Structures are given as C-alpha cells and as structure tokens.
Amino acid sequence: MSQNNQNTSHSSFDLVLNENWEWYVNDKRIKRKHHESLGDEFYNHSNLAIEACPFCKISMRRNWHSQRDKPEDDFEYEKFILKFCTKCAYWKFSGLESSQQCMDSPTNIIASSLAAKFEKNTPDGCSSELAQYIVRNPHYLHEIKPRRLETLVADIFKQNHRHCEVRHVGGPGDLGVDVLFIDNEKTKWLIQVKRREKAEKPEGFSTLQSILGTLLLADEKHGIIVSTSGSFSRPLEKQRGIAMDKGYMVKLIDKSLLTQMVGSLVPNTPWKQFFLESSASANLKKVRDKFLSIKLEDFRMSRKHGKQTDLFSQL
Fold first, then answer.
1. How far from chain centre, in Å, is Cα 104?
2. Phi and psi at residue 55, in whole multiples of 5°?
3. For residue 49, is it within any domain?
4. pTM above 0.90, yes or no
C-alpha cells in the first residue's frame, strides 16, 4: 500500500478495504487481477512480527485483540493489530470482522498514516503535523521560515505549560521579543528565536548582547534564547554567567533540546482519527467500539515524547 497515493480522499491515512468480496484502495475499486496481491498484503499487515518504523528505524510497539464469537468457532469473529512508533507517531493497522453467517464476506481493513505526505508551508495552528515532520527530519529546523519557527516555539511552550500565558509577539516593532512566556510564578520571560542554517556553528555572543539589551529596555530580568544551532559559544556562556551575577537570568535552548520539546506536539493516539473519520471503519463495528474504548496505557506504550513535559525547568 503506497503511502504516497495522492488519489485518497482521506487526509491523514491510506486505506485498503475488502468488503463483499471486493477490494478498494482509498475508495477506488480494484480490478480482480490485483485481489491476490492485496490479500497477501492484508495478511502481511496482520502478522505479529516486530517491525521498525520506516522513518525513525526504531521498533514499533504492538497491540492486538482477537475474539471468537464462540469458543468452538473455527473462524475469528473480530481481530485487529496495531503497530505504532512512539517517537514520530507513524502507525499501521489491520482489522477483520466476520459475520456469523457462513456465506457472508468478512470485512478486512488495512490502514496506515500518511507519514510521507506533508505540506511544508503549514499554517499556524498545524504544529502537530509540523512536529511529526521535524522529528523524522531534524534538518528541517534549518530550513523552516523564521516566523514559522517562532510560532512553533510558542506552540511548544503552550503544550508544555498549559496553564501559563504564551503569546507570539514577533513582527515589526517587536523590540527583539519573538515569544512572551509568563510562568506559574507570574515571572515574565522574553524569548528570542534564532533560525540558523547550520547546526555546526555555535550561537554567538552577539545574540546574548541582543537579548540583554531587550531585557534592559523592557525593565525585565528573565530571557530565553532558542536556537537551531547545536551549541552556544564559550564567550556567550562566559558572559551569561556574568549577567546572572548582575541579576539577569538567560536560559539557553539548543537544537537538541528544541527537538526534544518539539516531540511534545506529536500526537499520542493518531490512529483514533481513522476510526472517528473513516466511513469504512464503521463497517468494523465491534472492532471499532473495542478499539476506541481502549486507553493509551492499555496499548503498553509509554510515550515520553507526547506527554506534557517540563523540559524548560531542566535548563
């Protein structure tokens, strides 16, 4: 099943469906000469073997459910298996539901997230899709438009500090402030976001000078530098210590920590969108109801990346 199929009417997943002895791929009926290969693909999806995420190359977690209508039945009445990448939220699912009538066709479904499909010019408010793309392609942090990086940083702070005030204020007349963050203690943090084209070049002392000047003019004491550089220069680190002795607190977020924080925007249970949106999934009523009733912890998946995480406090 191609992840790049552009004929699908579904925005977030590819879908293969077998119903009434016919196969459909993204709602398009498939010729009988392809039925055998699609059947093979369904059974390949249905196996319990451990698979690696095609993007992150880490082993995907698995969850499955199988139930016969009666213990003596020879066929499985309902069955599904889900495989899920806990880092980037790529998922693949196969499900089967059989009728109690021996002549009725079982309903078979294969679905997987459209992990390879992404529009880079996502508007503000679509940071979940952008976060998934960045987790899979960290280099994009060096290509993203500066203003979109600012709004992404604002969304990261909103996700990790849901009861705090966060505003994107970057633009003409921003006086060097890209994001305003007010924490639980009512402390105001002025954030400057720097998109650098290369991670190898450290963020320089001039950036610290800039934010200290902004803090002085705004009569504030707390600032944050977020940079796509992989490190901060020694002069910056040294002068930051001197500034701290004078009462100015400036926290630093480099590319590594920023990528970790981006992970908080990756969805925890993206596969549920398939069951809520797809008309085809309604045909798997028993599997659908069982699936939607299961909590995240029932999938034996501990997601560090998707949970609300106060990485900021670790700086």
1. 39
2. -110, -50
3. yes
4. no
**In this structure, what CATH number is given to the domain that contains residue 209?**
3.40.1350.10
Work out how many domains the chain is built from and give that number.
Answer: 2
Determine the structural domain holding residue 222 and report its residue range. 127-263
Nearest-CA neighbor of 93 among 107, 79, 105, 106?
A: 79
Flag whether 5 is in a domain: no
CA torsion 284-289-291-297 (nearest 10°) is 180
Is residue 104 located within the same domain as residue 135? no
Domain-located, residue 20:
yes
On the CB side of 140, CA atoms within 13 Å amount to: 18
pLDDT per position as a tens digit, 135-180 = 999 999 999 999 999 999 999 999 888 889 999 997 766 678 999 9
Query: pLDDT for 35-89, tens place per residue?
Result: 666 666 666 666 777 889 988 898 888 887 777 655 555 555 677 888 888 888 8
Instruction: Give SS3 for 224.
Output: strand
Q: Which tens digits make up the pLDDT trace of 246-255?
A: 999 999 999 9
